[in-house]
Specification:
It holds the Pfam family AHSA1. This protein is α+β, with helices and mostly antiparallel strands. It has eight helices and 16 strands. 29% of the residues lie in helices and 31% in strands. Helix 1 crosses helix 2 and helix 4 packs across helix 5.
């Protein structure tokens, strides 16, 4: 039986390094060109080795891969040429993928070219392996599919011995292509290390899991201030502490050192927070607020004064008929608080 690690040697990798970066993958498949073409263009077959796809799958139409890229079908010349725009995220810039098929040696040679304008800071961190390893995994899936096998589970592939060997080998292979294109050896080594950490992270002992069937507020911060807010809140309440803080490390999607996930308690109640590395089109809203029952006038006034500073009073402290005194504020981080003295 053919070993998965042997698939690495089947592919030739190349980097065309200019203002736009092009990663090139070539490999041979023991399958007729019509079969490979259908596997790459038929929605049902794509879902079996790559990703589910929807859209108008014809020349000039658009497509969307589930949880991944989408774009326009720019060229479609069966059974030899497919070219699409490859757009992902809110501001993707220029990105195109071209697949060429050629009948050769009783089978099919596939050449994939992914050309994109890559932000310099991202390229400096990860180099060509950032997308190249992903395409290696995709073309591995195609090879297994054409032989009638099952695709690997990319979510857990790196946790297996053969999966980790394949991924780390692909990362090194793209490092060699990067260096062959003229990149300095130290820059290549750093990029390979970061790419490997992304695709095949080392397993770490997880913090103790909270009890099942427990509901806790989760605060997502989009300005990198989750830790500042958490420490501020902990300073205001009794029986309050930071329980655990998991941070983004080098090469991860979030800013290094920022909060990936933290748990903290306020008055004994567990809360969670994180720094989002994605800028969403929404913020905190007063429709969802933290409700505090205070034990005294002094506590109410102290909390109100601290939370409203730099924030906004939605309902100033006063008697509104339903309790002794009540106040409602948005704090300086945007989180909404209702403070009540029964």
């Amino acid at each position: 039986m053919r070993k998965i690690i042997d698939e690495l040697a089947e592919a030739h990798r190349e980097l065309l390094d200019g203002e736009r970066k092009t990663v090139v993958l070539r490999r041979h498949y023991d399958a007729e060109i019509e079969d490979v073409w259908q596997a790459c263009t038929d929605g049902d077959r794509l879902s079996r080795w790559f990703l589910p796809v929807s859209g108008d799958l014809r020349l000039g139409g658009t497509y969307q891969l589930e949880g991944n890229a989408g774009g326009e079908i720019l060229r479609c010349e069966p059974p030899s040429l497919l070219k699409v725009s490859w757009l992902f995220g809110p501001d993707p810039g220029f990105s195109e993928v071209e697949v060429r098929l050629t009948g050769k040696d009783g089978g099919t040679e596939l050449e994939l070219r992914h050309t994109a304008e890559v932000p310099p800071e991202f390229w400096g961190q990860f180099g060509p392996g950032s997308v190249g390893v992903g395409w290696d995994l995709a073309l591995l899936g195609l090879a297994l599919h054409l032989r009638g096998g099952e695709r690997v589970d990319e979510a857990t592939f790196h946790q297996t011995d053969e999966g980790r060997a394949y991924i780390t080998g692909a990362c090194r292979a793209w490092g060699e292509a990067h260096q062959a294109a003229g990149a300095p050896a130290d820059e290549v080594a750093a990029a390979v290390a970061r790419t490997t950490a992304f695709y095949a992270p080392e397993e770490e002992a997880a913090p103790p899991a909270p009890p099942l069937q427990k509901v806790a507020p989760f605060l997502m911060f989009q300005k990198g201030d989750a830790e500042e807010a958490m420490n501020f809140y902990v300073s205001l309440f009794d029986d309050a502490k930071v329980v655990h803080a998991d941070r983004y490390g080098p090469g991860e999607q979030g800013k290094e050192g920022s909060i990936k996930l933290a748990r903290f308690t306020l008055a004994g109640q567990e809360h969670l927070c994180s720094d989002s590395f994605v800028k969403h089109g929404f913020e905190f809203t007063p429709s969802m607020s933290l409700y505090v029952t205070c034990g005294s006038e002094e506590e109410l006034e102290r909390l109100y004064g601290a939370l409203v500073e730099g924030g906004q009073a939605l309902m100033p402290l006063g008697s509104y008929g339903f309790s002794t005194r009540f106040g409602w504020v948005n704090d300086r981080f945007g989180v909404s608080w209702q403070l009540n003295l029964p």
